[in-house]
Design brief:
This protein is an alpha/beta fold. It folds into 2 domains: 3-259, Aldolase class I (TIM Barrel, Alpha-Beta Barrel); 277-332, no CATH class. 39% of the residues lie in helices and 21% in strands. It contains 13 helices and 12 strands. It has helices at 25-29, 37-50, 72-87, 105-112, 128-133, 140-152, 170-182, 200-207, 215-231, 245-248, 261-275, 294-298, 303-309, and strands at 3-10, 56-63, 93-98, 116-124, 156-163, 187-192, 195-196, 235-239, 252-254, 284-289, 314-319, 328-332. It has a 7-stranded parallel sheet. The chain has a 3-stranded mixed sheet with strand order 11-10-12. It is globular.
């Protein structure tokens, strides 16, 4: 089975004419200038050396900015750097992230000529009130039209979403997830909104007009949304923000950031499954899971196991390679 690897090339928001209330790209990407060619090449080479030599699918990924808002000459400059690796089949494609209002049929033809395979749009929300309060500068219909163009041009579509934005709610976030499904995305990323210093959201937070989700609220919302997307076979590429010195340090003012956010969400998914299961009347139980789900079933800091140990004298977790995803069985064992 092929394993997917991205080689990330982070670009700041130099091409973005808007400043969303949550955005301070220098804190998110850790960069304020576009990286030079040699730095990009060195990063590509370093990543390629770190990946397994076989059974891999590698893409160079231009993230962090509004790629299609860059001058076409600059876009071409970066895309050209990937061409030798495409021709040598060291990578299998290119992906990039951009804004919905910077997608055109002409630009899509241009991107396709360089081997771009996947385009991720920062949808964030499909609720117009949330988009306006967040300073996004476009409507949900803009995202829908851009999604249609991307799919019609033959690209894979990713739609990124953010929970806990100003004016947002679980119901609105669930509708955003449904729109992501309906608009044809095959993948998504779920980011919780946090308050970063030197943003408009910092001012709103200090004035009391914005309150971020708690960590527990963000975990719960993400878990519920993940279930919906999973049922529709939309791949969730990431949950939670990328770790950085700024977010781990003074750059973060408030909000549900945690370096183990995704693990916490998977822990919550297992908690929800356990809550709906039929449990035996026994003192000693054994829970059997797929090998890849073993740690998540036990839970971050063993929270799921500890909860079950409040009911049972002994709880064992074992694995069975015949089980898939979050399928599991419960066995009652003798003392």
């Amino acid at each position: 089975m092929l394993r997917h690897y991205n080689i990330p090339v982070f670009l700041p928001e130099l091409a973005c004419p808007f400043r969303c209330v949550f955005c301070n790209q220098s804190s998110i990407t850790g960069r304020q200038q576009l990286p030079d060619d040699q730095a990009v090449i060195a990063s590509i080479e370093e990543h390629l050396r770190s990946f397994p030599s076989s059974d891999r699918h590698v893409e160079i990924a231009f993230f962090g900015g509004n790629f299609t808002g860059l001058p076409e000459k600059t876009q071409a400059q970066y895309l050209e750097l990937a061409q030798p690796y495409l021709k040598a089949k060291q990578i299998q494609g290119i992906r990039l992230s951009t804004r919905p209002d910077y997608v055109s049929r002409e630009n899509l033809v241009f991107l396709a000529s360089y081997g771009v395979r996947t385009i991720e749009l920062g949808a964030q929300s499909t609720d117009d009130a949330v988009l306006q309060l967040s300073g996004r500068g476009h409507t949900a219909n803009t995202t829908r039209k851009a999604s249609n163009m991307i799919i019609e041009a033959g690209f894979e579509l990713g739609l990124q979403m953010m929970i806990g934005l100003p004016g947002d709610s679980l119901a609105k976030a669930m509708q955003t997830a449904r729109d992501i499904i309906d608009w044809g995305a095959t993948e998504t990323r779920i980011y919780p909104c946090v308050v970063i210093r030197e943003t408009e959201l910092e001012n709103m937070f200090k004035k009391g007009s914005f309150q971020p989700l708690s960590l527990d609220e963000a975990i719960h919302q993400t878990a519920v949304i993940y279930q919906l997307l999973e049922q529709a076979r939309v791949k969730v590429l990431r949950m939670g923000l990328h770790a950085s010195e700024e977010l781990n340090g003074a750059g973060l003012l408030a909000g549900p950031y945690h370096p183990n956010f995704a693990e916490m969400v998977f822990t919550r998914l297992w908690k929800l499954q356990f809550e709906s299961a039929d449990w035996p009347e026994s003192k000693h139980i054994q829970i059997v899971t797929a090998p890849g789900q073993h740690n998540f079933a036990i839970g971050f800091q063993a929270t799921n196991k500890k909860r079950l140990e409040q009911r049972y004298q002994k709880v064992e977790f074992v694995t069975n390679p015949d089980l898939q995803n979050r399928a599991f069985t419960i066995q009652s064992l003798p003392r």
